[in-house]
């Protein structure tokens, strides 16, 4: 695979840097280039291996290739590069910050996209493990609409690689992902399975509707653990959320992980079906009159 010329820094993390880049040969399409030193290459190689399982899924960011670059003679000057689709629209977190609150009809469409991606991930035996708005990328299309894609599989694992590890009450909780999006069982027992991603999705739903992160009143991880695990609290439900939306949310934030709905079940929930049925019915009505569908949609 070609090497890439770095254009500018998009962000920095614990292990490396993400650049906007263009390939040194071929079409000059922008890519998001994750770069880590060769000592830290294992995590990026693992992410690449996982991403290759999801090639062709439109709701998951696509891996475009990898390479090793040399910028000197020392080991610290050798880098592992992973090229991914570049999201010109930034992340869902950026979108929420810009718009504060998203209308519920738009939220439902984004939920469908995320759930289709999660269904694809879970069906292939993986858990994402860190679903949050920062890891959902926004891709504007030619029609001005936005498409969401799940990204950052650095904490993902095969489902059967996880084991339940009981954490003593006096021990610090072990987080694989981001604490405010973690489910009760993942905080208390270190239990990571597909139902964790569904809990995280429920937290994202609240954030899209309210414009605020869940547990925003908790000032420390300790307070969060106390409320989620000891008091078995649930995040505050936005007043703006419809009755159907509240029922949908309850299936995501079910305390008992085994009773939490799956991605496939949630895609069939009436909350996400209603608008789709209206579109299908409208298409059928206009087809009876032999009129172009874009007349109805305009």
From TrEMBL:
Top-level lineage group: Eukaryota
CDD domains linked to this entry: STKc_MAPKKK
Positions annotated to bind ATP: 34
Pfam family, one: Pkinase
Protein kinase domain location: 4-272
InterPro entries: Kinase-like_dom_sf, Plant_MAPKKK, Prot_kinase_dom, Protein_kinase_ATP_BS, Ser/Thr_kinase_AS
Keyword set, alphabetical order: ATP-binding, Kinase, Nucleotide-binding, Serine/threonine-protein kinase, Transferase
Residue ranges of the TM segments: none
Keyword Nucleotide-binding: yes
Chain coiled-coil ranges: none
PANTHER family in alphabetical order: CCR4-NOT TRANSCRIPTIONAL COMPLEX SUBUNIT CAF120-RELATED (PTHR48011), PROTEIN KINASE SUPERFAMILY PROTEIN (PTHR48011:SF51)
Similarity field: Belongs to the protein kinase superfamily.
Name of this protein: Protein kinase domain-containing protein
Organism expressing this protein natively: Citrullus colocynthis
